[in-house]
Amino acid sequence: MTDIPLAHVLILSSLLFTIGFVGVVVRKNTLFMLMSLEVMLNAVGVAFIGAGSVWQEADGQIMFMLILTLAAAEVAVGLALLIRMQRRYRTLDIDVLSKMKG
Amino acid sequence: MNLLASLPLYPLLSFLVLISFGKRLSWAVASWLSVGAMGLSALCSMLLVAQLSTSEVNVITSHLWQWFSVGSAKVNVSFYLDALSAVMILVVTGVGFLIHLFAAIYMKSDENFTRFMAYMNLFIVAMLVLVLADNLVLLYLGWEGVGLCSFLLIGFWYQEKNNVLAARKAFIVTRIGDTAMAIGLFLLFKSLSSLNIVEINQLAQTSETFSLSIANNEASDAYWAALLLLGGAVGKSAQLPLQTWLPDAMAGPTPVSALIHAATMVTAGVYLIARMNGVFIMAPEVMTYVAWLGAITLLLAGVAALAQTDIKRVLAYSTMSQIGYMMLALGAGAWSAGVFHLMTHAFFKALLFLTAGAVILALHHQQNLFKMGGLLKKLPFESALFFIGLACLVALPGTSGFFSKEAIIASLWLSPTAGASLWWCAILGALLTSIYSCRLFFLAFLGEQRFPKDLVISDHLETNHLLRGALVVLALLSLFGGLFTIDLSTVLPLSNESELSPGWLHAVAIITPFIGIAFSWFYFKRYRSRDIISLNESQSSWLVFCRNGLGFDVIYRFLLVKPYCFITQLNRRDLFDQLIMLSAWYVEIWRDVLSASQNGRLRWFAGTFGLSLVGLILVVIL
Fold this sequence. Notes:
The complex is a heterodimer.
Chain A: H1 6-26, H2 30-55, H3 59-89
Chain B: H1 3-6, H2 9-21, H3 27-54, E1 60-70, E2 73-81, H4 83-106, H5 113-132, H6 136-154, H7 161-192, H8 197-206, H9 221-236, H10 245-248, H11 254-263, H12 268-275, H13 277-281, H14 284-306, H15 311-331, H16 335-362, H17 375-378, H18 380-393, H19 400-412, H20 420-445, H21 465-480, H22 504-523, H23 525-528, H24 541-547, H25 552-570, H26 575-597, H27 602-621
Antiparallel strand pairs in B: 1-2
Helix pairs in contact in B: 2-3, 2-5, 3-4, 3-5, 4-5, 4-11, 4-16, 4-21, 5-6, 6-7, 6-11, 7-9, 9-12, 9-14, 11-16, 14-15, 14-20, 15-16, 15-19, 15-20, 16-18, 16-19, 16-21, 18-20, 18-21, 19-22, 20-22
């Protein structure tokens, strides 16, 4: 098994993170925003795994499991909110929720 | 707490209670409180004066606390009682008590009764502070305090626009004088580095630089200080250039006119000049100005009083002219005669105003002299009192006004700062006084009654013994007040001997009022005749000119008020305001930017959040 250089892992991770971030900002559909958030979380996870394997430490994998749990919890809350939103506004367009105007 | 310091305390406490509880207090409680406080004050001042006259010392002082200190000079809140302020506190608390008593009954039906009595009490506090202050700053505090109360009380019936305008006029016009006085205080402090009245009076005589002019052509500090103090006195005492506010001030309730605009506050200017005699003696030119100002005011006000139709305005002009006499006396160096006239004038003018108030109330707020007439039969008691007051005013022999006015006139002839021409002015003034007094009496009390026959004269005043008692005490004071001899020689410099003047002067001075009475007996025959049912005020342009105060209001309107309003109109969007508004404008722009960024869109928030995080990290790394 050949070693993958850390730089490649980090490039992949930041690419994924950027894609996810752009997705959060660009998509109007709340479901897709949640999915983009997942992508961002997983980008961070990739960075942890990569770093863990380079330094031969278990910390990276432990952190990934933490992130996975967090992501699951976040998705649970997010989907619940999504359902409420669909019930209340009959749409998933996030721009409808703009009551927090200054 | 000694007796002297407690003197202003009673009215102050009463004021605080009245103003805090307001309308929740019933008439009985409010009047007992305010009049009772005044009674206590009057008792205290009598005790103090008794103490002062029996003890060896000439001065009672009471140091309360130090207010502040400027350099080496300390400004204390402390009271100083000598013979001069003793006269003043007797007048302020004694006459003040009687007027409070009258006012409590006179204003009984007013819905804002407690507010009225509260202001009256506050006025007494301020006046006592003015009179008892041992330094000029505390005096100035009282000086402004009485001005404030005058403003509040003239505008007491604020629902009517004229009253409010009169109050505003009184406030602004006196403020011009007050500003001059404040500058005078600074000048005194600069040249004598003291604010204590006794010290200033001593230093003014001993300091070498004070009365010397610096260069040949420049006037000395003493000259300017005296002139500026005179400015303050002129504003407060309604003397010549600043006299226009007093006739309008009659818009206030009648007890206010009696207390503030006849007996006490308007004489504060006289008190100030008498108090600062050390400064004025060092500036003989200013003494001459004082005398001439007094004389001119005396004559002009007398002429204006001749043409008035409103009973209170006649009395207002007469007050101005009597204060002119006091100024004349001070300017001539007859200090104690001026203060003596101040006291007797307080008695009889308060009596005249209060009786006029009773008459006005009896006629259901009719103040026009041409609609009165024949009151001698309807209101014999009031008529008698009014007659006593007028007799004092025209200085019939034996009354208190006679003693004080003769003392003034006698001192004029040989005075170095006055002289024969001013003596003739005073005589002419006495003649005018007797003529307008007769006109007033004929119009109001003699002749045929010119108000509706069925007009019921309200009798709640008639039957009130307290009210009549107050009037009777004032009448007795007016008649016999001349017998009080007050020894002011410890405070005021002695005036020159009047025995040296020729004897015919006294004879002329005594005869003058009778000439005036005889003249008006025939000249105003129409007014006292019983055959003429209706009288109309003459509309000749000369009389209207006099009635409107000899045109001073018109001149001031064109010279001062109009240009000032024009400038304010030009500068409506104030230039200096705009400069200050720049900073507000700057803040406003940023407010707009920031509030536009809070557009409530989650994606926008997330985007800016992420980008600014990236920006922050970049800043930290680079």
